[in-house]
Design brief:
Number of domains: 1
Number of helices: 8
Shape: globular
Oligomer: single chain
Largest sheet: none
Distance between the termini: 22 Å
Length: about 140
């Protein structure tokens, strides 16, 4: 399970929520990203550093992009429906996709956004399984 992998990146290596999701997803799904590639999602943490879209969601969306886009997103029949499913499931869970709305529901100073990342792992796996089953 993806959830079994994220802790080493979040707690042991101190990556933010988006970085953690992409690094764990890279390992779990064999995306073949290198360390330099994964730096690009650093800005997504803490809702793009300003409380906007949750970094865990953006990290999960980045994984979907790596899994379903061959060259260009607008040429991929898969990315829009799978991304829509991801966002829908986050909205069902939290009533929002914004960090500023999600954080009060799950953030604790002693473990930061642990619960949100765990939920993002579960949602991402569920989305991929549902999407693949319906293809």
């Amino acid at each position: 399970m993806l959830k079994d992998i994220y802790q080493k990146y979040y707690f042991e290596q101190n990556y933010n929520c988006a970085e953690t999701m992409l690094r764990a997803g890279n390992e779990y799904y064999g995306l073949n990203l290198n360390d330099r590639d994964m730096i690009m999602v650093g800005v997504f943490g803490a809702g793009i550093q300003c409380g906007n879209t949750c970094g865990a969601i953006l990290g999960a969306a980045s994984i979907l992009s790596m899994k379903y886009v061959e060259a260009k997103a607008h040429e991929s029949a898969d990315i829009k429906p799978v991304a829509t499913l991801l966002v829908r499931k986050f909205n069902m869970k939290y009533g929002s996709t914004l960090c500023k709305d999600i954080k009060p529901q799950s953030f604790k100073p002693e473990y930061r956004c642990k619960k949100t990342i765990e939920e993002a792992c579960d949602i991402l796996e569920e989305v991929i399984a549902e999407y693949e089953a319906g293809r």
